[in-house]
Specification:
The complex is a heterodimer of chains A (532) and B (142). The relative contact order of chain A is 0.19. Chain A contains eleven helices and 16 strands. In chain A, the strands form three sheets. In chain A, strands 1, 2, 5, 6, 7, 8 and 16 form a seven-stranded mixed β-sheet that branches. In chain A, strands 4-10-11-12-9-15 form a six-stranded antiparallel β-sheet, covered by helices on one side. Chain A has 532 residues and is α/β, with parallel strands linked by helices. With 142 residues, chain B is mostly helical. In chain B, 54% of the residues lie in helices and 0% in strands. Chain B contains seven helices and no strands. The longest helix of chain B has 15 residues. In chain B, 33% of the residues are buried. The chains are: A alpha/beta (532), B mainly alpha (142). At the A-B interface, helix 5, strand 4, helix 8 and helix 9 of A face helix 4, helix 5 and helix 7 of B.
């Protein structure tokens, strides 16, 4: 049997890295288990001629396409939105765009302000210092003074607008609508030893330059230097408990496929909104027959994605194509609730620059605008580097029938039951998507687009996995308390997107990490009586 | 499953119509491009075989001899019938075609991967932000 450690963290992604770094202060013995390995930027797609092809194979953000040894199968037949993730050190931050918006203060008071869903047990002011600390460690480019948001600390200079974002900005200006340079976890100048962005345009598939902040190159080097052990290629099957209902550690399969038991005084789940409920539901025992920490019945319920709409404009003037990060600007004109729009809550527009030549050709062929056969070259030359667009990232409200459960038959390579997703897009979300496409088309027309293409929902866009072990003060209506500790198991914590009570209309990574730092801080301030 | 030489040759004709040598551009049946393409077909070999079978059925085994207009019509019909199976081939052809140095150069693009040289992105017109800077904060206080 392995030596007992103070803390075992399951998952080395956005939140696992942040909580490990913060807890390293305590000099507790901390082990983090991850089912994948360390990414090697030298092998990322943008370093090879087949860089666009690898978006559709081993560096796809869709695990069902990628099929890496570290991945696990997911039954997502009953969901119009498919899961996107990355299993390895850095987690989803390895294959994300680096969007780094924060929640708004109103996002924590949804019930009070708008009469829907629930309020969070914490507020923006509570998280603000952790947002600030996280921004400093990850390294954020942007511009202070956005009138749609509370004032934030100074950041690195914003990413360039280029021709494409400037075109979209003109469209917003013509409508009199808000836009602002995006907060992006992408270094625009040297930051803590990381080189600045050189516009590879391949953020979503791994940044070979290391300019984009993924936790394998931000938090983890600091945490490892402080004594945290990262044990890779270790897939956790379940959290074990004793007769008193306290967690005793985790059972996992090591890199050789051998079953191991890692005893620990404290277990922290950091496996995202699908992985965490999967393991908790698979941790059944005499005391917890419905899965661990599940006396509320809410583990795996209230799954939220962000339904996405895309709006693409085609312009006569040449634009940037795929040269540069997809990030550039956002608009939160329609972020706060206005019931005259026909829906409650709101969304953010996020600029999306464009893809490489093959991606643009495939987009054209897929939409029927570029034919196969005769006429292909003429149509493609007209469109190459002449389009740009944006997505609308819509707030999804929690609904108990949107779930992560255990598939009765499908298992991973170690025989662990696979997660099964049941999800439907609500009427409110659909109305929001429709509104976002209509207003987005107006922006593109105002920007000078001669043609606009819209689509929703983006079936491949299940990047944000939230709500499946929500926080709250009432054990009947939440899985963990207001500082991330399980109501049922007093030495079990959750720090990933499962915690979210509501999803807001922005990318969740900065909030996930701020929450992880907040939970770590709560643990550190209560060490003397942590399990009372 | 590995494709036979005969199937590969049949698919070369099809690839050459998916992206044809027209308007001064190379086709996907160019020797260098198709060598790259044919080396990456094994994982979608069943899809390729289905497409070849469907095309042969529509063309009575004479696809290569048909005028290009008829070839295109057959491919559109097969595309409609096979859906995602056909798309797998289109995707593979397109991904291989648009990484050929000659193709990229002809389009005015720099051949090769983005890293390590990087790419140039102009700052753009930051004066566009002036009217937004003048706006009062509008996030909801709680």
């Amino acid at each position: 049997m392995l030596t007992t450690v103070d803390v075992v963290i399951v998952g080395a992604g956005a939140s696992g890295a942040a909580v490990a770094w913060s807890l390293a202060d305590t000099r507790m013995q901390i082990v983090c288990l991850d089912q994948g390995g360390w990414p090697n930027p030298a092998t990322f797609p943008s370093a090879g001629r087949d860089w666009e092809a690898r978006q559709h194979s081993d560096h796809s953000f869709n695990p069902s396409v990628r099929r890496a040894a570290a991945d696990y199968p997911i039954n997502e037949e009953a969901s119009p939105i498919k899961i996107a993730n990355y299993n390895g050190v850095g987690g989803g931050t390895v294959l994300y765009a680096g969007h780094f918006p924060r929640f708004h203060p109103s996002d924590f008071r949804v019930k009070t302000l708008d009469g829907v869903a629930d309020d969070w047990p914490i507020d923006y002011a509570t998280l603000e210092p952790f947002y600030d600390r996280n921004d400093a460690i990850m390294g954020v480019a942007g511009l202070r003074g956005d009138p749609a948001n509370p004032l934030k600390p100074e950041r690195m200079p914003p990413l360039p607008l280029g021709k494409s974002a400037a075109a979209v900005a003109r469209g917003f200006n013509a409508q009199g609508w808000h836009w602002w340079p995006s907060d992006s976890a992408i270094a625009t100048q040297e930051h803590e030893g990381r080189a600045p962005c050189i516009n590879l345009g391949h953020c979503l598939y791994g940044c070979a330059q290391g300019a984009k902040a993924s936790t394998d190159i931000t938090y983890w080097p600091l945490a490892v230097r402080a004594g945290v052990e990262v044990r890779t290629h270790c897939r956790v099957r379940e959290v074990c408990v004793d007769d008193q209902g306290m967690a005793t550690g985790v059972i996992y399969f090591d890199a050789e496929g051998q079953e191991q038991f890692q005893p620990a005084h404290m277990v922290i789940m950091a496996c995202n909104g699908v992985g965490t409920p999967r393991i908790l539901l698979n941790s059944k025992s005499k005391l917890f027959p419905d899965g661990l920490a599940n006396s509320s019945g809410l583990v795996g319920r209230n799954l939220m994605f962000h339904p996405y709409a895309s709006i693409t404009g085609y312009f006569d003037a040449p634009l940037d194509g795929g040269r540069g990060p997809s990030n550039g600007l956002w608009s939160q004109e329609f972020y706060e609730t206005d019931l005259n729009r026909g829906f409650v809550r709101g969304y953010t527009y996020e600029f999306s620059r464009g893809g490489g030549p093959a991606s643009q050709a495939l987009g054209g062929i897929g939409s029927g605008r570029v034919p196969i056969g005769s006429g292909h070259h003429r149509a493609f030359r007209k469109r190459l580097d002449h389009s740009t667009g944006m997505v609308a990232i819509c707030e999804d409200l929690p609904e108990a029938h949107n779930t992560v459960t255990l598939d009765p038959t499908l298992t991973d390579a170690h025989g662990i039951p696979a997660p099964k997703i049941n999800y439907t897009i609500s009427e409110n979300s659909q109305r929001m998507l429709d509104f976002a496409m209509a207003r987005g088309a107006e922006v593109m027309k105002a920007a000078g687009a001669y043609e606009v293409q819209t689509a929703a929902p983006l079936s491949f866009g299940g990047w944000h996995l939230m709500g499946t072990a929500r926080m709250g003060r009432d054990p009947k209506t939440s899985v963990v308390n207001d500082w991330g500790r399980s109501h049922d198991v007093k030495n079990l914590f959750v720090v990933d997107g499962s915690l979210f009570v509501t999803s807001a209309g922005v990318n969740p990574t900065s909030t996930i990490q701020a929450l992880a730092l907040y939970v770590a801080d709560a643990i550190k301030s209560r060490l003397a009586n942590l399990f009372d | 499953m590995a494709l036979t030489d005969q199937q590969i040759e049949a698919f070369r004709t099809i690839a050459g119509r998916i992206i044809p040598a027209e308007d001064g551009a190379l086709g996907a049946d160019d020797a260098t491009i198709f060598a790259d393409l044919s080396s990456s077909l094994n994982d979608i070999a069943p899809a390729i075989a289905s497409i070849i079978d469907a095309v042969n059925l529509e063309a009575f085994g004479r696809f290569a001899q048909l005028p290009s207009v008829e070839q295109d019509a057959i491919l559109r019909k097969v595309q409609g019938a096979l859906g995602m199976t056909f798309w797998a081939a289109v995707q593979r052809v397109t991904l291989c075609y648009y990484r050929d140095d000659r193709v990229l150069s002809a389009l005015g693009l720099r051949p090769g991967p983005p890293f390590p040289r990087g790419q140039v992105l102009e700052q753009g017109d930051w004066s566009l932000l002036d009217p937004v800077k003048a706006r009062q904060p509008f996030w909801r206080e709680t």
